[in-house]
Specification:
By secondary structure, the protein is α+β, with helices and mostly antiparallel strands. It has 8 helices and 17 strands. Helix content is 29%, strand content 23%. The strands form 4 sheets. The protein has an 8-stranded mixed beta sheet with strand order 4-3-5-6-7-8-9-10, sandwiched between helices. It has a 5-stranded mixed beta sheet with strand order 12-11-13-17-15, sandwiched between helices. Strands 1-2 form a two-stranded antiparallel sheet. It catalyses: beta-D-fructose 1,6-bisphosphate + H2O = beta-D-fructose 6-phosphate + phosphate.
């Protein structure tokens, strides 16, 4: 029978004190996600999971019943882990868990909650950080660490089966929930994202709001074999970032959620600490990439706990090409609709 999550983490942690703390924290998170999975599987039988209870911490997103229940399960589970403070996308500020503990945890308890009542894949995204010396761990400032400071990160997707994908800095690892026994079992110890794929994910309804160079990139993809890419592409959009990430983990491609000109979207929409950092770590550890269009996501340092950021991730070749469109030579600008020209891009 395949190794369990705890088997894998026990081998990785050995007798190391910090790794052992990370192991306990990841096991606690995994236990909570198994409980969330059971609620999701029951759907309407578990209550009005998609009921809107109000607005989220920053006043923009709707907060659903399942958001709140997932958040409560995760917070309760972390009380048994060596975690000093818990930052949730559902709360304005971090909360204390265990005073003096060595770790911090940042979580998006329920990503894709607009899909709860449509039975579309949703998930949980998490990040584990060291509690910095000399900083109050319950302060926002404690979480203002570069993405490369993460000790572990991952997500759980609640779909036809429940999958847990995580990294402790030694590759990206894929587990699946054994529902009969309530444990996660290893299915792939070294995930490698394909370097090239013919799929892209973006919300095309926002085409008119994008930066001209990004719009040019998408327009080139849409031209398929008749355009500069000379390949026909398929487009995907689930409105659940964690589901898009899982598809890319399995078969490659690229995901784009850029900044645009709409109010509330000029700095991007996805949260750096809760969403972009964990996904970026998984991507890089699986041989892929994640950027804000110019800078690797993991090199960014948050200035606000709920800071939003443009996010582009997936197969490295694709992500690098987008960055070339956004920051590359002048010929790209000359091909934009603003200049009324079209030509071939070879980069």
């Amino acid at each position: 029978m395949a190794d369990t999550l705890d088997d894998y983490l026990a081998r990785w942690a050995g007798a190391d004190e910090t790794r052992s703390a990370v192991r306990k924290t990841l096991v606690a998170i995994a236990g909570a996600t198994a409980a969330i999975s059971a609620i999701v599987a029951d759907g309407p039988l578990a209550g009005a999971l998609s009921a809107t209870l109000g607005k989220g911490a920053d006043g923009y997103d709707e907060q659903k019943e399942l958001d709140v229940r997932a958040d409560a399960l995760l917070f309760e589970a972390l009380k048994a882990a060596p975690v000093a403070a818990y930052a949730s996308e559902e709360a304005e500020l971090p909360v204390s868990v265990t005073a003096g503990a060595p770790l911090l945890v940042a979580i998006d308890p329920l990503d894709g909650s607009s899909n709860i009542d449509t039975d579309v894949t949703i998930g949980t995204i998490f990040s584990v950080l060291p509690a910095p010396a000399g900083v109050d761990p319950v302060s926002e400032a404690a979480f203002f660490q570069t993405g490369r400071s993460q000790l572990a990160a991952g997500y759980t997707v609640y779909g036809p089966h429940t999958a847990l994908v995580l990294s402790v800095g030694e590759g990206t690892v894929h587990f699946v929930l054994d529902r009969k026994l309530g444990v996660y079992r290893l299915v792939a110890e070294r995930v490698t994202i394909p370097a090239a794929a013919k799929e892209f994910a973006i919300n095309m309804s926002n085409h008119r709001h994008w930066d001209d160079r990004l719009r040019l990139y998408i327009d080139d993809l849409l031209q398929g074999k008749d355009g500069p890419r000379e390949v026909d592409y398929n487009m995907r959009w689930i409105a659940s970032m964690v589901a898009e990430a899982h598809r890319i983990i399995i078969r490659g491609g690229i995901y784009l959620y850029p900044a645009d000109t709409r109010a509330g979207y000029t700095q991007g929409r996805l949260r750096l600490v809760y969403e972009a950092f964990p996904i970026a770590l998984l991507m890089e550890q699986a041989g892929a990439a994640a950027t804000d269009g110019r800078t690797p996501i993991l090199d960014l340092v948050p200035e606000k706990l709920h800071q939003r950021v443009p996010l582009i991730f997936g197969s490295r070749e694709k992500v690098d090409r987008v960055s070339n469109y956004l920051t590359g030579p002048g010929e790209i600008a000359e091909r934009s609709p603003l200049f009324g020209k079209r030509g071939l891009l070879t980069a």
